[in-house]
Design goal:
2 copies of one chain form a homodimer. Chain A is an alpha/beta fold. The first copy, chain A, folds into 2 domains: 158 residues, NAD(P)-binding Rossmann-like Domain (Rossmann fold, 3-Layer(aba) Sandwich); 95 residues, ProC-like, C-terminal domain (N-(1-d-carboxylethyl)-l-norvaline Dehydrogenase, domain 2, Orthogonal Bundle). Helix content of chain A is 45%, strand content 14%. Chain A is built from 9 helices and 8 strands. Chain A has an 8-stranded mixed β-sheet, covered by helices on one side. In chain A, helix 8 runs antiparallel to helix 9. Chain A starts with 8 loop residues before the first strand and ends with a helix.
């Protein structure tokens, strides 16, 4: 009988937002999760129960039976545990899930390694559907890259092979498109609060702004006073922000930069 | 027979994105649009035909029969035409649709005036559904405010009375939530292009970032390296932006500001 990709024994290191979402998604696709590691017993047990797997809070007891180890930890946590993970488990393929770290952080630890990077913002409060989330794959062998692409392909329609440099650029682009965008929402919310207005009046505008770039490239979708650098409105807005100098400076620089792009520079 | 609000004869000044979207919406709700003005004959005729109204390109021929004149022009265009509009039409209620201009720009021209401000980004390429778009209403009499709220209420479930100061704050908040957000998309797009990656890989992240603030306030929804000011990642990103100093400076200031809000300042 031909073994299918879902029979690959997988161990998951981590039980945070990404680890939880990813492990559940694998489980629902019929994968065999044989163990979950977390230093927090409660998190390890809860996730392990959901996916009918073993769990441990101790590196010594980390299973040696997995063929694929997915370390779904944030960059700093990953780098801390890295020296304690792989000893005695060098037979397997090891991947991390971090956008900001190069693939070669694995070098010297294991012979087969790679990266399995889903580009999305994960939170405990919301379960995400992986079907539309792009996965960016990298490994140090053609065969393992192919294997990881197949694993990713069971979860998502969008699986891409990339280089470490490309993945770094994706992570930086995601900081702009997600974290910095969310900060623009936060500054808008702060302002509305000051004027006794509810933040939810902005939601249709926020939604339409996101929808627009499905059809138009962002530079073409741009509107507002900064495009033609309308000094009247801009000065007026800068005045309104005079009690928050950091925000005022941001308003000025972003407006100048919008104008720069609109001129095609 | 009781006259209904839809029988109010309306004239529309303007045939741009907002004017077009708004006029069609009124028409579909059964309002009587008696004339469309635009200085561009083609735009005036096209819109007038769609809503079965008269049109003109000449202020002299602007109808004197309307009871509500809606001037759906951008701020600078509106201020230019304002002195030519109202003469002989002082009986009617006049409103502009601009977020950035106070109500009292009408003062000295007509006795009954106000503002009818829909908070949304309009583009020729996309038709918007007004049902969820908030309208912000202001006028110089209680009766006309009530009337404008009823008119707005035929198009949208969300109609708010606001002061000119509140509307200015809404407009500024919209610049952050729409124009500045879109600029973050544009900078992400520029970066991905440089690394040969398609912009559409970011769309699921962009959508989720917008969806998240329907459930969490933006400060709580924030993730990424700037929250704890992760110097390793941030320095790395700043390095990657060294060939675009303006964008590098923006990255630095926004990250600092995210950290400021995360600390609760």
């Amino acid at each position: 009988m031909k073994r299918s990709i879902e029979d690959t024994p997988i161990a998951i290191v981590g039980a945070g937002n990404l680890a939880t979402n990813l492990t559940k998604a694998f489980y629902h696709k019929g994968f065999r999760i044989i163990q979950v590691y977390s230093r927090t017993e409660e998190s390890a047990r809860a996730l392990a129960q959901t996916v009918e797997s073993d769990y441990t809070t101790d590196f010594e007891s980390l299973t040696k039976e997995a063929q694929l180890y997915i370390v779904a930890l944030k960059d700093d946590a990953f780098l801390q545990v890295l020296p304690h993970l792989t000893n005695g488990r060098e037979h397997a393929l090891w991947v991390h899930t971090v956008g900001s770290l190069p693939m070669n952080v694995w070098e010297g630890y294991v012979p087969r390694y790679g990266v399995f990077y889903p580009l999305q913002t994960f939170s405990k409060q919301r379960e995400v559907d992986f079907a539309n989330i792009p996965f960016f794959i990298e490994s140090n062998s053609e065969a393992d890259t192919q294997f990881l692409c197949e694993v990713g392909g069971t979860l998502s329609k969008k699986v891409y092979k990339v280089t470490s440099d490309q993945r770094k650029a994706l992570h930086l682009a995601a900081v702009f498109a997600c974290n910095f965008t969310n900060h623009m929402y936060a500054l808008a919310a702060q302002l509305l609060e000051k004027y006794d207005l509810p933040f939810n009046t902005l939601l249709p505008l926020i939604d339409e702004t996101a929808r627009k770039v499905h059809e138009l490239v962002p530079v073409e979708a741009q509107t507002g006073p900064a495009v033609r650098y309308d000094t009247n409105i801009i000065d007026n807005h800068l005045n309104m922000l005079s009690d928050t100098p950091a925000v005022q400076e941001l308003y000025k620089l972003i407006s100048e930069d919008i104008h720069r792009l609109a001129k095609g520079e």
